[in-house]
Amino acid sequence: MAGDESACPVDHKAREEWLAQARAAEASKAKSQSQPPPSACPVDHSSAPPTRSWTQSLTSYFWSSQPEPQSSTAPPKPTNGLDTNRVVSSIPRSTSNPSACPVEHGASANAEIESGKDASGNWVYPSEKMFFDAMKRKGYDARSKDMKTVVPIHNAVNERAWAQILKWEQPYLASSQCGGPKLESFANKMERMTPTARINTVLGYTAPFDRHDWVIDRCGTRVDYVIDFYSGRGDGKAGPSFYLDVRPKLNTWEGVKMRAMRWTGLA
């Protein structure tokens, strides 16, 4: 894991999908903010106040961010208007895998010494600048203004995946003696389509644009999850649309038991 730069909860390959949806969202936002032509009606009908964009609404729910530490001796690097703050996720990190996220989350991604408090133990998302620099190094057609939309997508998709995992883990939370499940590791497996995704594709459904496997530590019990990422259908609302198919893998007895309990309504 530590040597695989592509092993992030949502892979760099998926960022092409984010860029497309982010730019579509910005185009829709710009269109909605354009001034309408003057009304020919002699009575002035005042328009409703503009609604907040999806990015403005989304970022208001994020966890407080921590500043990216700067060396006291080295001159500050130019940011090109990109934010250097980092958002602490709601995803606890298992201490059995102390390495930081290998995709540009930084060697001290889990350290919050800047705040003067103990580390939360949660994964920390990259800042806009870190995200932009990583995409440029990977050769993606990234623009600075894209980061205002792409980074929230990155964070929100990970949070949604974790929320769905917690639904699977809910029956085990009451008896948890270690504070609940934690994310231990993750890997991109896009080159190997899941049986479910392959069957759906044969039936005519759109193939997922990415796949990841997350390893969860449940108080010493390893639980493997698979996540298929799909582009969602537009519902007329501003912002990108994604669908995540999250379920335990059937490679262990624990996964088989969890799936069976869900199918039979026992969990």
TrEMBL record:
Location in or out of the cell: Mitochondrion inner membrane
Low complexity bias (residue ranges): 20-34
Enzyme's top EC category: lyase
UniProt GO MF annotations: holocytochrome-c synthase activity; metal ion binding
Entry EC number(s): 4.4.1.17
Superkingdom, taxonomy of origin: Eukaryota
Keyword Iron found: yes
Alphabetical UniProt keywords: Heme, Iron, Lyase, Membrane, Metal-binding, Mitochondrion, Mitochondrion inner membrane
Chain segments annotated as transmembrane: none
Main location: mitochondrion
Role noted for this protein: Lyase that catalyzes the covalent linking of the heme group to the cytochrome C apoprotein to produce the mature functional cytochrome.
Protein's UniProt name: Holocytochrome c-type synthase
Native source species: Emericellopsis atlantica
